[in-house]
Structures are given as structure tokens and as C-alpha cells.
Amino acid sequence: MKKIFILSFILFLSAGFLQAQDLTLKVNSDKVKMKIGQTVQLEAAVVDASGKTVTDREFIFYSRNSRALSVVDSTGFAKAIKHGDYDVIVISPGDPQLRSNISVSIKPAAISKVAFGEIPNKMYAGVNVPLTIDVMDEAGFERPEVPITLTTSDESKVAIAPFNKLIVKEAGKVTVTASAGGVSQNLDLEILENPIAQIQLTSDMVEGRSGDVFTLTAIAVDKDGNVIKDAPINYSFTGESFDVSAAPSGLITPEGKFVADEPGLYILNATCGPAAASVTVQANNRNITRKINLIGQGSVNNKHTSDLWIWEGVDGKDYAVTGTWGADGTAYFWDVTDPAGIQLVDSVKVDARTVNDVKVSEDGKVAVISREGASNRKNGLVIIDVSNPRDAKIISEFSENLTGGVHNVFIYKNHVYALSAGRKYYSINIEDPKNPKIVGEFELDTPGHAIHDVWVHDGIAYSSNWTDGVQLVDVGNGIAGGTPSNPVQFASYAYPSGSNHAAFPYKDEKTGKFYVILGDEEFPYGLDPSGRKPSRAAGFLHVIDFTDLKNPKEVAWFQVPFAGSHNFWIEDDILYAAFYNGGVRVVDLSGELLGDLNRQGREIAWIVPEDPDGYVPNAPFTWGAQPHKGHIFYSDWNSGLWSAKLEPVVPTNAKIDQAK
Amino acid sequence: MTYNIFRKIGSGISLVVLMTFSFMANAQDYFVYVTAESEDEVALIKFDGKNATIEQTIPVGIWPAEIEGPHGINVSPDGKYWYLSLAHGNPYGTLYKYATATNEVVDTVRLGLFPASLQISKATGLLYCVNFDLHGDMVPSTVSVVDPEEMIEIDRIETGVMPHGSRISANGLYHYSVGMMSGELFEISTTKLKVNRKLNLDGKAEEEPAMGGMDHSKMDHSKMGHSMMTESAPMYHSATKPTWAMPHPTNGKVYVAGNGTNDIVEVDLEKWEVTNRFPAGKAPYNLDVSPDGKYLVATYKGSGETGIWDLKKGKELPRIKNTRMVTHGVTISPDSKYAFVSVEGIGGEPGTVDIIDIKNAKKITSIDMGKQAGGIIFWKME
């Protein structure tokens, strides 16, 4: 009897198991075809081996692209939003849990519109004209994949070239037609006789150096010598490099600015239809490289080092403060009066794991350090009396609205500008450093906004906001009526990579140009899985011309191959940039900036802090650099604080003097 | 005679079987994954019944010079994958999927602000992760629903202010989490992807809303016991400050860590009301219930202790002092023998995992790991 019972029990279990295994999730087997705007009830059912529907099963539907095909969770009610092929995943929870896919194809809407973009007011014979053409459908979507066919009413006057370009040959009336998806649009053109008989081309320099900007002036005149102001001038160049092993290279802009990367002879051309002119210029070797010597080191090899700040103390000596990263919340104070004998003179330890940023007030009396990783998750910042850096004393801790971690801070005129949780920054009055008080804040309202850094100069706060780029905010300059308690944003610039991590303003007194240099932070190579190998960064410095605040323009860049930018400083037309695994790069910023600054030979010197006794040995990862009284100080993630010095510029007639 | 021979053989076999089982019992190894929030690492720790060792340390994230904050961690029901929430981003956090066989990244998906505790429902196969939004404005946040097979976020379900401490019922049908600052317990239907019901743990009527504009600095997330009024904006702040919700596998109760009221709150699921509040240690933070349903283990963040509760008697066993301060997470082995407790430490101290014999309420061993040991989850026994 007992055996029968056990056998029956086993059979029951088997049946149950088989039954569970035989359940199938049935969904729409054929591809579901929909039109935009249409709604469809997607079908799903769980059936047993006999094909009978199991009634107590629930379903979860979701679209792999909910912006194009919306599907309501448990009901399977789908709405087509955008054309394309999509998958809907169907899950039936329970035991067994069942999954299946439904394929949905949403038919594109009919093409509704073909539109030409802006074209020149006057179109002269002999000038090629590129067209921009947008194709839209009835659902309001752009349809760049739809082929466009261009035709012309008179091939002898206007011919069609690949990539939607017009070859304008003769004067007269012509209609160009763009057709896509059964819709056509005409563009009526009146081609004018090209009046330009001559181009008078001059350059502001005949001879310069690589990296110098040659500004061309092209004046188009007719046969009577009248100036044609709206003549569409095209600029180009050819060249010959002085170095037979290097190709001539450079950049010429549509406005007629030319810069040579490679020293050589360059022919700069201006054309307009049949008229052409050229000038020859010579770009000599920039010849600004200087030797850089390592002077000293204050080693930190038991933890990572973060940012640095160098200042002249109230006693006239020179000091540095450095932070630490992923460690025990220590900030170190150094006497750097003798850069060859950097001395650790004090340290302050706070409840944190990372002191990411350190700053000192203009009068050298107060330091502010940021906290991240506090044990009570109240991060904030710490204000320290550094009147005597050999006896640095905590004045106060401040975490109001800053619990999420302060990644970066800046001190400017008795106010601390402190980031909060990577979302915004607060301005905090520290006239009474024992009782800091929030007086203002700045936060963007863009979706998913974030912030990494803020730097204040001349009453303007430059915040680096990743995808939102740099934001120029008046916090006392007066340009936009802002104050620390009422920050007013007045200009901004963002670039596509979205990697804006740091910013530094720079005004070139000679040219009158106002630049803001924006630094990326990128780590596309990720982490070494073993955690023991040196890291490598990417990203570079973007030079933005903010001379016209309403129309900032990216004009130049500085890149170091296989390394990435971090913090940087500009003083006396020289950029001092930490490039993580690329060490410190010293760059000549003099004159107008255009194009690839590194290829132009603007790099004056570089030095890489390699330390066999480093936290990670021989793994340079330079965090920041700051010039101070003729020396360059720089902090390195794996080896602490360093100092270096550029050798003096050798006068160009030094050899002649020596020969004498 | 024949009978005797068979009897002796049988006895011998029994002895061998007994010895084998005995050997197997003694040779049992336990594996847990633990996050080091201030080190951007995950440690895989093995415990052999006496000693613990770090089998592997896995660097996580992609930014060597930024702390990305691994926070929540869990293992798929089949044990093939582990999932990790990285709290910090620009600004959103990320869910990572790793293979347990290699401890290498399989896929990622971006979630909300400060994603934290997470778990896969065995009923739906979907992963539910709270978006803690620890340092954001005092507004309701969400629970992200992710298909871990595709690593697509398929839905966000709004719950309370600072949702945290989530766990799913044994049958996989209900997800429980708490709104730390709104003082609410939320029950989400994992199949309908909707909040079924919510319960204010402070005893307030549900329509009393939490208010915006709160200053987090007035909260002490480790001790959680003082005023939450800002200088500028007085506002509602939960006295209970619940930080974890743990459904019992069988008894129809959910236990909540009353971080602000220093108690364990018992909620009856049928009545949907608080049926008991057990005075506990200082600032209970995370909870786990042994699979046999007998014990509840609570971490006391404020005092650096671990509490073990005999649920049948409703009494706490002698408290266990942890190796260092800021006790954080707990996970219990499937055999209900051991509690693995993560301890954050302070500043430059290492994180630690204490391994506790639950029945005897005794710490067996501990092992140091990366800084700020936090999220912890049991992987396997073998």
C-alpha cells in the first residue's frame, strides 16, 4: 500500500512536471503590421499540450523601443508612433515563466514635403553651390534615408553634381527640382552673370611661424574696378613642407584665415568662378620648445593624490595644499618655498574618503577642502585656517545642502562656490568662516543636467556642465547684473562629445580675443580588470572664442595622442595642462588661436612624473598643474606633489652672440 | 548468516553515507559578493565554515579617477549573473550585469538617480531597482523595472521620497520597498507593474504628503535620529525613517527597519497594518530573514552591531559587536546557518565582512576588504 502511494506520488509529480513543461506562450505569429497612429491589441495566451488556454496566467508586454512603439504593460495595447521594425517582448510570469517576441512593422507615412535649405541671395555663374534638402513625412518625421533626385530645367546653365551640389554655369533662369517619395519641390533660380573680373588678395603676413594665423583679405572687383561685396569667395591652399619627411598641412577657414601645422611654403588661393588669385606665405618653424627640468618632489605613495593649490602664505613663504583620493580624508600642507626641497609641514584629516579639491583664499588665510565618502554620508566642505600652514586648523565644517558630496570648490572674494551632488553649485558667504551661509545657487534646468567644476575669475563663474558645456555666470562682474546671491547666466557653449569637465578663461591682450578653454575628461579604455596596471585617459582641450559672447565658436584644440586632459592653468600666454598619463604639457598660446595647436608645434615642453616608488609604480596620472613664481607645480595621482622649471627662452641671436 | 552479511554490508554503507554527508557538511563552502562603495570594487568572498578569504576583487565602473559608488547587488535566481547598481553618474546611475562564471561585464543599462537595492523576481524574471535619489530634492522617486535578459529599462514606477531597502516576496509576485523620507512602505505588483498599496509607517494618514526643499545635511544617514527641519523650509520628515523592507518567506509579514525610531516594524500583509514594533539597536539599517523563517537579522548602523531576532519568540538574541563601526548590509546562507554582514568603517579604514553563526549569535570570523563595504548578497554553496 505504501509503495503504491509512493508510486502514485511520483507519477503525480511527473504529470505536474510534464504539464508545466508543456505550457506554451502563444503570441501573434505573423509580423504585426501597423500604421503610424494606429492602435492594436497584441495577442498572448498560455496554452497547454492539448491546446487549451490556461486562464489564470498574467502577461507583461513591453516594447524594445517604447518611443517608437508604445505598449501598455499588462494589456498589450500597442500604439504605433514611428515607422520601423520593432520587437515587443511578452512575458507570462509564473512557473514556468514564459517569454516570447512579437514582431511589429510600422509602415512609414507618405512623404509630405521636400524643402530646400537656405541658398545665397545672389547666385553667380561659375560658382558651385551646395544644397541642403530636408525630406519630411506626413507624420512629421525627417526621412533622410529616402533618396532625393535632383533635376534641372536647363543643364547648360545649371548642372547637378553628386551630393546635392549645383554646378552653376551660365546666367539665366533655371528651375531645379528635388523629388523624393513622390513629392517634388521646385527651386527657381536666377543666375547672374558673374561680374567678378579680378580678385585682389592680400595677407596680413608674408612670413610667420607654424601656428600663426595668416588673415587673408580678398576683394572682388568687376571690370570697372567696382567692389563686389557679396562675391562668394572660396579659399584653399597648397603647400610644400620644409621637411621632406612631412606632408604640408594646415587649416584654412571659409573666412580666409590660414594656419600652417607644418613649416613650409604655402600658396593661399581665393577663387570666385573664373576669377582667382593667390599669395605665397612662409610658415617658419615655431621654434619655441624649451627644456624643462624636474626640480623636486613631495612624495605621497601610500594613497592617491588629487588636486593642488599653491599660494604665498601670510609669512611670505610659499605653500601648497594637496588632497587625497579614495583614502582616509587627508589633506597635506607643504612648504614649497624651495621647490627643490618640498617639505611636508602639516596635514588635516577629516571624515571622508576623498578630498577631491583644495582651494585657498586670495589673502592666503583660509583653505577650503571638499569631502566625499563621509561615514555619515554628510559630505560637504571643511574650512581651514591656513594663516600658519604648519599648524592648519579646522575652523568649521559645512554640509547644508551639500550632503551628496562636494566634488569641486572655488574661493572668490569671501565666497565659496561649492558643487552639490554633481547637479548644481551654491555660493556660500564665508566672511565669518565659522558660520558659512548659503547666499545663492546656480542650477541648469535642462533634462539630466550635471556639473563637474566651477572656476571663478573676475566675477564670472565658469562652470563645466558635461553635455551642457560651459556656462558663464555673472557672480559679481556686473556684465549681467549678477551677484553671489543672484548668479546670472549670460553665455554658454556646448560641444557634441558632452565631456566638458573643466574650464579656464584666457584673454589675449595683443589680439583682444577672449577665449575659454574647455577640457574633456574621458576614460574610454575603462579600468584594468586586475586593478594593477596604469590607467589611460582620453579627451582634449577645446579652445572656444568667446569674443562675441552671443556667438561663441570652437576655433582650436590641443590634443595629446593616447592621453587625456584633466585640470589646467593659463598664465602669461602659456597653458599648463595636466594630461593624466601624458604628464604636464606646456603650451604656447600667444597670438590668435586656430586649428590643431599641438601639430603646429605650440608645445613648449612636457614632463611626465614617473616614480618607481609610486602608489602604483611608474604609472603617471597627473591631476593638475599650477605655475607659481617661475616654477611649475603639479600633482600626480600615484606619486604626490612635484615641481619643475622651464629653462629660459634662448634669444634668437644667442648663437651670433656666442660666435662673437 | 546471509542476513548478517547483508546487515553488515548495510551498516558499512550507512557508515560511508553518514561519513560522506558528514564530510560534505564540514566541507561546505559559501560564497558572497560584497560591494566596496568607496573603492569602486566588488569582493567575492569565500567562507569555509571557519575562515573567510577574498577569492577575487573585481574593479567596477569605467572612471579610474571618479568614485562611481557600487551600492546595490544581487544574483539572478539561477546564479549565473550578478547585478550591480553604480550610484553615481552624470547624473544618472547605471545597472551592470556580470557573469558569475567570469566576473566580467555582460551588459549595462542606465537607470535613475542613485540606483540602490535591486532584485529579480522569480515570477516575472524582471529586475526591480529602487532609484534612491539620496541627495536629490525631497520629491517622490521611482522603482526601475528592467528586463535583465535584454538589459532594457521597461518601466519606472513612482513610489516615495528616497525609495530604499527593497526585497521581493518568496513567490516573486510582490516587491516591497520603503520611502525613507516619506516614511512609507510600498507594495508593488511585479506582474502589473503598479503600486498595489502603501502604508504610512509613522501612523499618518496617507494623504499627508512629503514636502519639497529639504536639506539633507540635517539628516544623519548613519544615525538618523534628530530634527529634520531646515532653516529655510520646515517640512514633513518621517520619524520612522524606514530603510529596509524584508518580506518573511511564509508568515505573511513584512519586517521594516525603523532607522529613526530604533525598532523593527512588523507589518501584517493581510491586515496591511503595523502589528508590532520591536525595540531594537541603534539605527537598524538592512534586514534579512533566514530561509527557514526562524530568524531575522538586522544591522545596527548607529552602534556597529548586528541583532538576531528569534521570530517565533519575538525576542532578540544577544547582540553581536561588529568588527568596526557603520554596520551596513546582511545576507543569510540558504541553509539558514550564517549571516554575512558588511561593515563600512570610517575614513581610511577597510570595509569588513563579519560572518555570524546565527543560532549561537556568535561572530565566527571576519575579513577586511575595500573601503565602505555595503551591498552584500549570497551567491552559492558548494
Outline:
Helix content of chain A is 4%, strand content 48%.
Total separate domains of chain B:
1
Helical residue percent band of chain B: under 10%
Annotated CATH architecture of the largest domain in chain A:
7 Propeller
CATH superfamily of the largest domain in chain A: YVTN repeat-like/Quinoprotein amine dehydrogenase
What is the CATH fold-level name of chain B?
Methylamine Dehydrogenase, Chain H
| Low-confidence runs of chain A | 1-19, 656-660
User: What is the CATH top level name of the largest domain in chain A?
Assistant: Mainly Beta
* CATH level-1 class of chain B: Mainly Beta
Q: In what range is the share of β-strand residues of chain A?
A: over 45%
Q: Would you count the extended β strands of chain A for me?
A: 56
Which residue ranges of chain B are poorly predicted, with pLDDT under 50 across at least 5 consecutive positions? 1-6, 15-25, 208-234
Q: Categorize the overall geometry of chain B.
A: globular
**Gap from first CA to last CA of chain B:** 42 Å
Could you say which structural class the secondary elements and strand pairing of chain B correspond to? Answer: mainly beta
How many whole angstroms does the radius of gyration of chain A measure? 33 Å
Could you describe the largest sheet of chain A, including whether it forms a barrel?
5 strands, mixed
How many DSSP H or I helices of chain A? Answer: 2
Domain module tally of chain A? 4
Might you state the CATH topology name of the largest domain in chain A?
Methylamine Dehydrogenase, Chain H
Describe this structure in words.
- The complex is a heterodimer of chains A (660) and B (382).
- Chain A has 660 residues and is mostly beta strands.
- Helices cover 4% and strands 48% of the residues of chain A.
- Chain A has a five-stranded mixed beta sheet, with no helix packed on it.
- In chain B, the strands form seven sheets. In chain B, strands 20, 21, 22, 23 and 24 form a five-stranded antiparallel beta sheet that branches.
- Chain B is globular, with a radius of gyration of 21 Å.
- Chain B contains one helix and 29 strands.
- Chain B has a single domain (30-203, 235-381), classed as YVTN repeat-like/Quinoprotein amine dehydrogenase (Methylamine Dehydrogenase, Chain H), CATH 2.130.10.10.
- Chain B starts with a helix and ends with a strand.
- Classes of the chains: A mainly beta (660), B mainly beta (382).
- Chains A and B meet through loops of A and strand 3 and strand 11 of B.
- Chain B: One of its GO terms (molecular function) is DNA binding.
- Chain B: InterPro entries: Host-pathogen_enzymatic-act, N2O_reductase_N, WD40/YVTN_repeat-like_dom_sf.
- Chain B: This is DNA-binding beta-propeller fold protein YncE.
- Chain B: Residues 1-27 form the signal peptide.
